[in-house]
Amino acid sequence: MNQMTKNVLSIEQAKKIAAQAISIAQSKQLKIALAIVDDGGRLLYFERMDGVSWGSGEVALAKAQSAAAYQRDTVVFDERLMGGRMAVLQQPFAFPIEGGVSLVIDQQCVGGIGASGALAKEDTEICKAAAAILSSNT
């Protein structure tokens, strides 16, 4: 009988990732909302910095869920839409705005992180830098 193992994202890991993301945002004098979800797209951690709109919180969650659902960064959908691929708008949970990054442990997607409130490229940079914690401290 073959048994498969599955990595999971712990709340401790999510908190470390979030702390790193918030620290990066603060160092760049940016204000963001941040969402971290598990591989099923369910919220594990959320933080909205002072002064950030609640709408940005919803966007951060949608970015994180999209990254987890498709196991790829949301920039992929952003680029497809910008290239004229309108079908992206009909894909369930595909959020075509850069700023969502899949979270990976040992080449397995364990969730997603999304940020919103800065420029989309800055949101992505923050998420990628924070997600890098998983490859150094799993």
Q: What would your notes on this structure say?
A:
There is one protein chain. By secondary structure, the protein is of the alpha+beta class. The chain has a single domain, classed as Beta-Lactamase (2-Layer Sandwich), CATH 3.30.450.150. It has helices at about 10-25, 55-70, 75-80, 120-130, 135; strands at about 35-40, 45-50, 100-105, 110-115. It has a 4-stranded antiparallel beta sheet with strand order 2-1-4-3. The protein is globular. The model has no long low-confidence stretch (mean pLDDT about 95).
- Adjacency order of strands in the biggest sheet: 2-1-4-3
Question: Can you tell me the number of structural domains?
Answer: 1
Query: Main beta sheet: strand number and arrangement?
Result: 4 strands, antiparallel
Distance between the termini: 28 Å
- Stretches where pLDDT falls below 50 for ≥5 residues? none
Overall CATH architecture? 2-Layer Sandwich
Question: What order do the SSEs take from the amino end to the carboxyl end, as H and E?
Answer: HEEHHEEHH
Number of helices: 5
The whole-number mean of residue pLDDT values reads: 95
Q: Estimate the helix proportion, in percent.
A: 40-55%
**What structural category arises from helix and sheet content?**
alpha+beta
**For the CA atoms, what is the radius of gyration?**
14 Å
- What is the CATH topology classification name? Beta-Lactamase
The geometry reads as globular
Q: How much strand content do the residues show? A: 15-25%
Question: Quick one: CATH class?
Answer: Alpha Beta
